[in-house]
Each structure stands twice: as structure tokens, then as C-alpha cells.
Amino acid sequence: MRDQYDVVVVGGGPAGTTASGLLSKWGRRVLLLEKEKFPRYHIGESLVPGVMPVIEDLGATQILEELGAIRKYGISLLWGDNPEPWTVRFDEVCPFPYTYEVKRAEFDNLLLAHTRRLGTTVIEEANVREALFEGDRCTGVRYSHSDDVIDVHAPFIIDASGQAKIMARRFDAVGWHSDLKNLAAWTYFQGGSRYDGQAAGNIVLENRPPGWLWLIPFSDRTCSVGFVAPSTEFTASGLKPADVLYQRLDEALEVKRLLAGAVEVSQVRTAKDWSYTCERMSGPGFIQAGDAAAFIDPLFSTGVMLAMRSASAAARAVNNILDEPDSEASIRQSYEDGYRAFLDVVISFVRFFYDPSKKVVEYFEKARELVDPMEQLKAREDFIILISGLVATHPIMDYVPKAPVTASSSS
Ligand SMILES: Cc1cc2nc3c(=O)[nH]c(=O)nc-3n(C[C@H](O)[C@H](O)[C@H](O)COP(=O)(O)OP(=O)(O)OC[C@H]3O[C@@H](n4cnc5c(N)ncnc54)[C@H](O)[C@@H]3O)c2cc1C
How much distance in Å is there from the Cα of 262 to the middle of ligand 1? Predict the structure, then answer.
């Protein structure tokens, strides 16, 4: 099949549906191939305000509101030298005062349905086996669907295959961050207590050296509770990951207090949680977005934001390339430079924050050093801007543009 589509997108997670939705909205013919049948389970349930401008751009604000997910107005932490939990609210400085805690099966399904409405052709249970190349140019993909194996060609391919990272694996281009080789174990509880008022939707992060616990409340009174620590911590304990989680929950302070009286309603799940940045995020005829380009430790719940913001930038890049094929190399380079600059800030801060021994104000000052060296805001506000994913590091990752930008205005 040639010339039927302008773009083929691999993967129907937040990165894939953002890229396909925006390109469809701008009049491109898009095919999205997704391996699973939706709705499907996925980890990554706490959003940050940095997703909101993309959701707006997709025209999905109202339908997301109708999902009835609990609003997340801030985060609460038991971290640093402060013996009491401390809280920051997004509306102290962000233009988006809240975001949501979502069950990803529902959230991703909603975005998949929305991209269909915007005009994307979506095929579920379509497993992309390999990318097809003519010389060094990617010209399509081969996928299996039912008993068929099908080749589809298009001028541009977007790899949004998540941690399957089909392009990065093909080019052996996954750059692991050796200091962030973590493992996560998590489960779900029903009941327990919540903070009062708007803080009821806050994620709670509690440091438990050498790792940390999360508690994410949902609107149906269940919550997601997990422990993240270096993989070596789990192996050295000699315990099953589930028992490590239970042990850490038993030692916890704030998370344990909130879980008092709650009943576990799920089996414990685990995932390898190793951070990486791909050494190349694009090539002739293709571009990567979301986890297919980079994955950063979930400490600040940045995964879906990074997926949607990178996919939004990738969609703009692809849209420009389709208009100006001769500028492809510079447009792709600009995308990679912009996204790397954004990732560098996030990962530098995650590394700094992993040291729980600091004064709370030191975390704020580090945020200022990274995002606001001219000291235009208070250091606490810089911290909130940074953890919200709304930091402006490069025009490519700016959250302001609402329409496709031209190659010259984005470089
Ligand atoms: C323990 C843990 C906790 C996390 N917590 C958070 C959190 O609280 N908040 C947050 O924002 N993020 C969190 N994340 C990160 C988040 O899960 C991801 O960053 C996010 O889902 C990335 O979105 P994506 O669209 O790039 O990939 P995905 O959401 O993984 O979507 C990729 C899609 O591609 C499909 N696919 C894969 N291979 C193929 C193929 N060959 N053919 C066709 N389709 C294919 C998959 O089925 C999938 O649907 C967490 C991650 C971990 C490990």
C-alpha cells in the first residue's frame, strides 16, 4: 500500500494518539497501528499539568473532564530534612491549576477514540514486526493482523511503541542511565483515608531509602501504591518484590497512615524501571516520541507528559517535513536538540532529588538553578514549574503553540 497515508504511527499510547490526533486534525492522512485491543492496562497513572496544553490542542479537554477522574491540584511529599509532610499546589504559579489521576486503561482508550474521531485510521491488534527500509530511509512497516502479514508504506513513520522502542532497538541506540536502574513493585487498595478538600487528589511521595513509595488516589476510592528502588535492593533483600513492597509499607509513615483500614484489591505487579535516553531519536523517514525516545524514572510522574509533549513536537516536525521535504534533516535535528534539552533538565533534577538528605529549600534552589537562573520567580515557584513539566527550555518543547509552526519559526 503506497500513498494511502501520509504518516504511519506505531503504538496507541499517549504519544501515539497525540501525534496521530494532531496530524489528523491538521488534515494529514494517518494510520495508527496498536498491538493490543483497548482498553488495556498500563502503569503511569498520575499526570502533571504539562499534559494539559496538549490535551487542549487535541480538543479533548471536555471529554477528559467527563471521564470523572479525580483532580490533582498538587503533590504532597515526605522528603528531605522536614519531618512533616509538605505540599505544593500547582496554582501557586502554573497557568493550569490542576490535572488528573487517571486509570490508564480509561485514559488511553479515551485518547484512542478521540484520535479516531479526528480522522486517524486505527487498527488494533496490529503487531508491528519490523520497520521497512529502502537504503537508509524508512519507508514503512510490516505488521501482523489476524493471520495476515501486511506491508504498509508512507512518507513518514512515527515510532510511539513505548518501551518496545522498535527503532532504537533496531539501531542498538538505547543509552541506559546506569545510576537509575530501578525496579518498581505496586498494587491497589480500596478505602483508607484522604487529605481534606482539593488535596484529596494529591499524589503522595514518601522517601524510604534507598527508594521511595507512591500513593495515587482515584475517584472510586481505590488507590495505586508502589515502591521504587534500585534493582539491586530487591535482589539483595532475598525477598520476593511483593514482600519488599509490603515490608516498606509497614515501615512507612504517611503512606501507612493513609492506608489504615484499606484492603488490597489486586495482585502485586512489577516492572523494570531503568531510565534511558536514545542516542538517536530520528532518522531518514522516521522519528521517535514518548518512551520510544526516552524514559525517565517516574519520581515526578513525568512519563505521560513527556510522551504527549514530545509527540506534539514530533507531529509538528513531521507536518513541516511533509511540506518541506528538503528541510527534513534540519527539522529532525531541531526536534532532537529541543527534546534532549528538555530531558536533560528533568533528569538532572530527578538525580538531585533522589538524595533525600537535603533541606527542602535546597530542592527549590536546585530547580531555580536549572530553570530560572535570572531568578525571575521564587525558588519554590521554579520547583513547581519544573515538576509540572511546564519549563520552557527550547521553542520545540514550548507549550504555547496551538497550530503547526513552520520550520523557520521552530528552529
Ligand atoms: C513503575 C512506573 C510508574 C510510572 N508512573 C507514572 C506516573 O505516575 N505518571 C506518568 O506520567 N508516567 C508514569 N510512568 C511512565 C509511563 O508509564 C510512560 O512514560 C508512558 O506510558 C509513555 O507513553 P507512550 O505512549 O510513550 O508509551 P505506552 O503508553 O507504553 O504506549 C505504547 C503503545 O505501543 C504499543 N506497542 C508496543 N509495541 C508495538 C508493536 N510492535 N506494534 C504495535 N503497537 C505496539 C503498546 O501496546 C502500547 O499501547 C511510570 C512508569 C513506570 C515503569
Answer: 28
Nearest-CA neighbor of 361 among 384, 348, 379? 379
Q: What is the pLDDT of residue 35?
A: 98
Retrieve residue 111's grid coordinates.
Answer: 485518547
Ligand 1 atom closest to 14 (CA): 25
Amino acid identity at 315: A
Grid-cell match 488490597, residue found: 264
Residue 22 and residue 197: Cα distance in Å, rounded? Answer: 35
Q: Which CATH superfamily is domain 7-175+275-395 in?
A: FAD/NAD(P)-binding domain (3.50.50.60)
Residue nearest ligand 1's atom 29 by CA:
13
Q: What is the pLDDT of residue 2?
A: 65
Which amino acid residue places its CA nearest to atom 31 of ligand 1?
A: 13
**In the chain, what are the domain boundaries?**
7-175+275-395
Q: Which residues of the chain have pLDDT under 50?
A: 401-411
Q: How far is CA 214 from the centre of its chain?
A: 16
pLDDT the model gives residue 401: 43
Question: Which residue's alpha carbon is at the smallest distance from atom 14 of ligand 1?
Answer: 44
Q: Quick: pLDDT tens for 221-232.
A: 999 999 999 999
Q: Which residues line ligand 1 (CB under 6 A)?
A: 10-16, 33-36, 42-47, 127-128, 160-162, 164, 166, 184, 271, 273, 290-292, 295, 298, 301-305, 307
pTM as predicted: 0.96
Ligand 1, residue 36: give the atom nearest the CA: 47
Segment 305-316, tens digit of pLDDT: 999 999 999 999
